[in-house]
Amino acid sequence: MRNILISMLFFLFLAAGCGTQENVIKDENIQQGNALHREHVSNIKEKETVVLAYETSKQTNQEMNVDDSTDKLKTSIDEVEKYEVQDDRLKESDEKQENKLDTKKEQDMVSEAVFIPVLNKYNQMYDIIEPNVDQSKLYEEYVGYKFKTIKTKEQLYKEFSDFMISEVARSLWSDYVNEGEDALYLIPQDGHPKFIKDNPYSLKKINQNTYQLTSNHQCELHGRLDMVFTFTQIDGKWKISKLDVS
Question: Where in the sequence is the signal peptide annotated (predicted)?
Answer without folding.
Answer: 1-18
